[in-house]
Design a protein that fits this description.
- With 97 residues, this protein is an all-alpha fold.
- It has one domain.
- It is built from four helices and no strands.
Length: 97
């Protein structure tokens, strides 16, 4: 049973990854489509990550504080390490209050 489930999952993953190559045989020349496809991975990552931020702790205010601090530091173009540490510190401070 587990082997058949593994085979089905492998085939599903293969079909999902190969289908764009089968559908789009020529290079995409439309600038709008190219710019749209450029941002798809970032949007998918954000859509998967952002809701998880608010379920990481039981305290919604701590999650909101961490999000606001991370967004502010990222907006000021700080490094990823500074953003992550700043958000974690903000959550810790709000959790301890």
């Amino acid at each position: 049973m587990a082997v058949s489930a593994l085979i089905v999952m492998a085939l599903t993953t293969y079909v999902i990854r190969v289908s764009p190559f089968l559908i789009f045989r020529r290079k995409i020349t439309n600038k709008w489509v190219q710019s749209f496809l450029f941002y798809v991975p970032y949007v998918v990552l954000a859509a998967m990550t952002f809701p998880a931020i608010f379920y990481a702790t039981n305290n919604r205010m701590a999650s909101l504080a961490g999000t606001v601090v991370a967004a502010g530091l990222a907006y000021r173009r700080k490094s990823l390490l500074v953003v992550a540490l700043g958000a974690a510190l903000a959550v810790l401070v709000v959790e301890c209050l």
